[in-house]
């Protein structure tokens, strides 16, 4: 990375934020980075990542410096990668330690991913404040390590009923883009529906599997379009990049990708989605009820992520293998077309949602740095 000398002039503090690989790590990291830059004067934020993850594109596009190290996954079985791991991890750790020393880093904040363990270890070795945000209900190995190293931990979900190093973490919610965190769905609905070419008054269903899409959701929906339209429902279908499907309808709008999901949320009255941590927290924050269909692979974190919203009454959940066009139609008829049910679910979702997580995490980081702790944050008190 090339250090920009102008970023060092007149600065009061440098914060190293670490997060890599998926949007689940990078998006909250960038939301907090923006909040730091907007709320505090003289702060320089540098992101630690790799050259192969989403951060390689998203961090520079957001206007932040990116310092990269090699991606070194923790080996889960004895093989050649396990033999190389100590040397490769040590190289990355050395790079981070030198960066911290040479750039005068004042605090380290981690959001998960392969780059976080060397960041946490190097930060602790330098006796810097460590701050962690964990996005999933089931915490990752990296953030468990950081918590054991004494970091201040915040979470997107309530961890009070869990055990382990994050059980006493502060529940702040998910840091998210301000366009979503401040969204008034009702006020923005007419403009959002117009932007997608939707009927301004027809009950609207949003179906999305995220930026990468969910082929299973796409296929089940394709068989339900005509019956849903017969019930008076219009559909906004975000298929995912490269996953366009052969489907049509008078009140069916298909797009592969949406640049600003706040528009899709505002246009919709009910959603059918996967239950990634970011999606669950965003739907709760904006009060959009949903049917969650957790991704059936992985370690089961998606089902855990959606469980609290389901228990609160703001969402329903069904296993991927059990989703059929008939069940989809039945759920939409009950949750979208019944005004009392829909209003009750909206209220329950909103009660669980948290909109100020980015500011809270930024403020905790700033409070750990003497040069920033004396500042009154722009936009409100800590």
Sum up the structure in keywords.
about 375 residues, alpha/beta, seven-stranded parallel β-sheet, six-stranded parallel β-sheet, 17 helices, about 45% helix, globular
Low-confidence stretches: 1-9
Strand order of the largest sheet: 3-2-1-4-5-6-7
Name the quaternary structure.
single chain
Tell how many strands the DSSP assignment holds: 13
Radius of gyration: 22 Å
Order of helices and strands: HEHEHEHEHEHEEHHEHHEEHEHEHEHHHH
Tally of individual helices: 17
Q: Structural class given helices, strands, pairing?
A: alpha/beta
Strand count, sense and closure of the main sheet?
Answer: 7 strands, parallel
Q: Let me know the average pLDDT.
A: 90
Span from first to last CA? Answer: 33 Å
Helix content: 40-55%
Q: What is the 3D shape? A: globular
Structure description:
It is a single chain. With 382 residues, the protein is α/β, with parallel strands linked by helices. The chain is built from 17 helices and 13 strands. It has helices at 5-8, 23-39, 55-61, 80-103, 116-125, 141-148, 178-181, 185-196, 215-222, 225-230, 261-267, 277-286, 301-312, 325-335, 339-352, 357-367, 370-373; strands at 13-18, 43-49, 65-68, 107-110, 130-134, 152-155, 170-171, 204-208, 234-238, 252-255, 270-273, 290-292, 315-317. The strands form two sheets. The protein has a seven-stranded parallel β-sheet with strand order 3-2-1-4-5-6-7, with helices on both faces. Strand 4 (107-110), helix 5 (116-125) and strand 5 (130-134) form a beta-alpha-beta unit. Helix 4 crosses helix 5, helix 5 (116-125) packs parallel to helix 6 and helix 8 (185-196) packs across helix 11. The radius of gyration is 22 Å and the shape is globular. The relative contact order is 0.13.
């Amino acid at each position: 990375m090339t250090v920009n000398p102008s970023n060092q002039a007149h600065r009061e503090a440098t914060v190293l934020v670490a997060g890599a690989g998926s949007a689940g790590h990078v998006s909250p990291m960038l939301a907090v980075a923006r909040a730091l830059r907007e709320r505090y004067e003289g702060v320089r934020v540098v992101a630690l990542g790799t050259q192969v993850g989403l951060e390689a594109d998203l961090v520079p596009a957001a206007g932040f410096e990116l310092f990269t190290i090699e991606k070194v996954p923790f080996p889960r079985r004895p093989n050649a990668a396990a033999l190389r791991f100590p040397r490769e991890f040590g190289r990355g750790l050395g790079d981070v330690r030198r960066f911290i020393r040479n750039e005068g880093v004042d605090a380290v904040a981690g959001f998960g991913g392969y780059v976080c363990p060397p960041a946490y270890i190097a930060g602790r070795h330098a006796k810097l404040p460590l701050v962690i945000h964990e996005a999933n209900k089931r915490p990752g190995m990296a953030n468990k390590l950081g918590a054991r190293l004494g970091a201040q931990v915040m979470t997107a979900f309530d961890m009070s009923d869990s055990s382990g190093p994050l059980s006493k973490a502060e529940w702040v919610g998910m840091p998210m883009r301000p366009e979503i965190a401040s969204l008034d769905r009702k006020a923005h609905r007419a403009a959002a529906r117009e932007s997608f070419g939707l009927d301004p008054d027809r009950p609207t269903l949003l179906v999305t599997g995220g930026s990468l899409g969910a082929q299973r959701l796409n296929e089940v929906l394709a068989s339900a379009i005509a019956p849903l339209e017969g019930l008076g429902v219009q559909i906004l279908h975000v298929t995912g990049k490269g996953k366009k499907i052969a489907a049509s309808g008078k009140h069916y709008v298909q797009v592969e990708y949406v640049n600003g999901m706040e528009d899709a949320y505002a246009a919709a009255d009910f959603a059918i989605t996967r239950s990634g941590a970011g999606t669950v927290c965003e739907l709760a924050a904006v009060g959009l009820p949903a049917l969650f269909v957790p991704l059936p692979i992985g370690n089961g974190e998606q089902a855990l992520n959606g469980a609290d919203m389901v228990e609160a009454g703001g969402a329903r959940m069904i296993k991927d293998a059990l989703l059929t066009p008939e069940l989809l139609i039945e759920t939409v008829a009950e949750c979208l077309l019944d005004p009392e049910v829909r209003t009750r679910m909206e209220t329950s979702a909103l009660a669980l949602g948290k909109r100020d997580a980015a500011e809270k995490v930024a403020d905790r980081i700033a409070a750990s740095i003497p040069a920033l702790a004396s500042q009154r944050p722009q936009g409100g008190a800590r």
